[in-house]
Structures are given as C-alpha cells and as structure tokens.
Write a structure and sequence with these properties.
Length: 251
Amino acid sequence: MEHLLVIEDDKNIRDTLKEILELSGYQVSTANNGKEGYSSIIKHHPALVLCDVNMPELDGFELLGAINQRLKDEIIPPFLFLTAKIEKKDIRHGMSLGADDYILKPFDNTEVLGIIRLRLDARKKLLHLGNLNTSKETLDTFNKIALPSADGLKLVAFDKIIRCQADRAYCNFFLVDGSNILISKPMSAFEPILIKKNFIKVHKSSIINPQFIDKYIRGKNGSLLLSDGCYVPVSQDKKDELLKILNHIDQ
C-alpha cells in the first residue's frame, strides 16, 4: 500500500483529502503545517507529498527547500502543491525547487486522484529504468548511450550530449537540441563510459563534451562557457588537466 502525506493547515481540506485518498486504497498521514510536514517526510519517507503553499511555521516552498538541503543526494518524493491561486513566478520558483505539479483549490476529487496516480506511476517507471544495466559493448558498437527516460530507453549519440550534471541522487544529460533527460542514477554511474568517449570531468558535479566549449574564462579556478550558453565552473584540481587538453585541441 502506497503511503501518501498530506500537509495542509485547513482542517476541512486536510480531512477531505485524507478520506478520498484512503477510500482509493492509499495509506495516508497528515500534518498541520510545514514544520510537522518536514518531520513526517524525514521519519516516514512517503511515496508522494500533497502540500499546501501558504502555511504557518514553514510555507510549502520553504519546506521543499529545507527537504532538498536535508536529503541532498537522496531521492525526494514527488511534491504536489495545493494552492488557491498562483502566479507564474511562483510556479517557476516551485518547479526550480523540484515541485512536480500544482493542484488548484477548489479541486475536483477525480482530478486529484488522476494526478497522484500519474505522478506515482511516472516515478516508478523512472526508478525502474534507472536500475537497468547498459551493455558497454553495445555502447561502443553504436556510439550511443542508452538513457532511461520517462517513456522508455532513449538512445543518444555521444556527440549530441553537451554535458552531464549531478542533481542530488539524479543526474541530468543536456543535449544539443535544447532538451535534457533527468535520470535516477548518480553521475558516477555514467562517468566511466563518458570519460572513455573523451568527455572531461571539470567539476565534481559536471562532465562536459569538449567539442561544445566556446570559451575558457580565467579566474581563481576558471569556468567554461558552453555552446548552449551555460557557464560551468572548473574545480582547482581539474584546472591544469583541462588547460593541457584545451591547448592540444586541433594541434
């Protein structure tokens, strides 16, 4: 039975959500405010969190930010925010913290159940695909890497990858077409094959494809401007190795 957490300071809404979720077969815990919600997430590790935005103690955004800081490299459950009204800047802020969706009040019970099922199923698929092993022989033969995406394995040519970047327990592959693929594996799982394909690890959180370096920017450690407009920092222990590689490109 999947365990859900409802964090809502309005008792009527909290009790209504608890009732409809339990009738749908979920195990449900509740919290009255962000502070209680924080403790419950750390203690019970729910499969999904339904969280009000405006609450005492900690609001929804502050709570998700605090969870990100506490769990860091651990996988955070899907976060669905409940709100009566929301501005675009708040939506962007919530998404930047890792929010998965917004549910507007007053909500339709069927819609809420549909969104929850969709998010739970998507997370299960992502975690399952993230555990698949990829054959190194296959990668070498086709010069592509198999990346688990939300709807299956996506075969991506190495020369279409700009960078791989760590994101807590996940990693993100940024591609030349402007898209990115979030994967529920740490960057270290892909580091050996990327390095073998002449990618460069320039920071503990970044592995880059050198063909997409537009500019090296001098500084204490330096940074790189990539062709997608992203600035990537260079760690002190990688600086000399990187400069040696850059100085030999096309020579």
